[in-house]
Amino acid sequence: MSKYNITFADIGTTVNVSRGTRIVEVAEKVGASIPFGCKENDCGDCMIEVLIGAENLSKPSPLEIELLKEKLAKPSNRLACQAMVLGDVTVKPA
Ligand code: FES
């Protein structure tokens, strides 16, 4: 299976993960300062800013798009509990 790098800019840590890994799955393990609430696309607490590689994340679902709009997100924002890694990305808490 393909492996890609996800870099958490807030803590300067890069992790090599399998394609399809959700950011939430590694963020807590490495101590990134992304807060998580529901982990189910419901609260918006896990909003991140994608600094590099937005095109390397899974496309947001209609529900994620709706919640991001509710939270007045910028185009560079995603939900870490929903976005899956499909290539190299660099993120930080929003
Ligand atoms: S943790 Fe609630 S939307 Fe991601």
Note the main attributes of this structure:
binds FE2/S2 (inorganic) cluster; 94 residues; single chain; alpha+beta; five-stranded mixed β-sheet
Structural notes for this entry:
By secondary structure, the chain is α+β, with helices and mostly antiparallel strands. The protein has helices spanning 23-30, 62-70; strands spanning 3-8, 13-18, 47-52, 77-79, 89-93. Strand 1 and strand 2 form a beta hairpin. The chain starts with a strand and ends with a strand. The model has no long low-confidence stretch (mean pLDDT 97). The protein binds FE2/S2 (inorganic) cluster (FES).
Short précis:
This protein is α+β, with helices and mostly antiparallel strands.
Poorly predicted runs: none
What fraction, in percent, of the residue positions are helical?
Answer: 10-25%
Instruction: Tell me the total number of β-strands.
Output: 5
Radius of gyration: 12 Å
Largest sheet: 5 strands, mixed
Question: What is the element layout, followed by pairings?
Answer:
Blueprint lengths: L2 E6 L4 E6 L4 H8 L16 E6 L9 H9 L6 E3 L9 E5 L1
Parallel strand pairs: 1-5
Antiparallel strand pairs: 1-2, 3-4, 3-5
Bound molecules: FE2/S2 (inorganic) cluster.
